[in-house]
Amino acid sequence: MRNTQKLIYNRKIAHFCDLLRQLVDRDMKLLYKRSALGIAWTLINPLLQLAVFSFVFRSVIPVNIPQYSSFAFSGLLIWSWSQTALFQATSLITSNLTLIRQPNFPTAILPVVTTTTGLIHFLLALPVLIIFLAVDGVQPSPVLLLLPLLIIIQFVLTVSLAYPLAALNVTFRDTQHTLGVLLQMLFYLTPIFYDLNSVPKEYHALYYLNPMVPLIESYRAVLLKGMQPDWQMLLIVSAAVAALLRSDWEFFGGKAIVLWRNCKWLNQLLSRVWESVLTAIVPIDL
User: Fold this and answer.
1) Which residues, other chains included, contact 37 with Cβ-Cβ below 8 Å and sequence gap of 6+?
2) DSSP string covering 235-267, please?
3) Cα atoms in the 13 Å half-sphere on the side-chain side of 221
4) Among 172, 171, 150, 169, which residue's Cα sits nearest to residue 161?
5) Of 20, 28, 65, 232, which one has the fewest beta carbons inside 10 Å?
6) 208 pLDDT exceeds 70?
7) Do residues 257 and 100 lie in contact, with contact meaning Cβ atoms separated by under 8 Å?
8) Are 114 and 162 in contact (CB under 8 A)?
9) 4-36: pLDDT as tens digits
């Protein structure tokens, strides 16, 4: 009996991995279809941003941050992975209805696909970051062995946040636009191109409510400083992410789509709220 259950479980895992590989391959091909530069676009955006930040914070508003190129580029790569995956997650259900309607299709795999695609881009850009580190004179240290652990934590964090965003966008179609604004705000409120130590200490507690802050600080401790990350903060983030991921998986893998589609009261409530906002902005008598 146990051998049969184990065999069924192994087959499910193999099927999941094979399906994940096929869907990621599909996304990569669609993303760079008819593109002249192809996957080089993975590096163009962060490199252009790095050029702007280097000019501004070295020539216009000088900052005292050693190895600034490696410092800023590492933050950009880490942030871009999660930002892109979360933004794309909002349209996962609405843009994959053909797949979702297939019998026994594991809908819960979709956020994993998007995050895995972002992981591939992150790994492809990692050698460029290593070149920056070498140019800046950063010596490799044994703590680099902790890098896979940080990548796993960020992967699970991104997936756990992608689930509710994908489900929410089914009913509230402004989710993607709202998320774009929030991510833009968080980009400047996250120490990507500036040091956390330059932020007044009374605001540090607010900053650490953003799970990307301890992650970016941990990456930089390992990559730039050759130091151990802040294990206490990483443990807190990991525990919160693990709890969120479990509830997300049960909700999304169960009947999340049906629930969101059939919540007529939620649709009516959101419509009334939106009408009230419009009425407040544009009075009827006008």
Assistant:
1) 44
2) HHHHHHHHHHHHHHHHHHHTTHHHHHHH-HHHH
3) 16
4) 169
5) 232
6) yes
7) yes
8) yes
9) 767 776 777 777 788 888 888 887 777 777 666
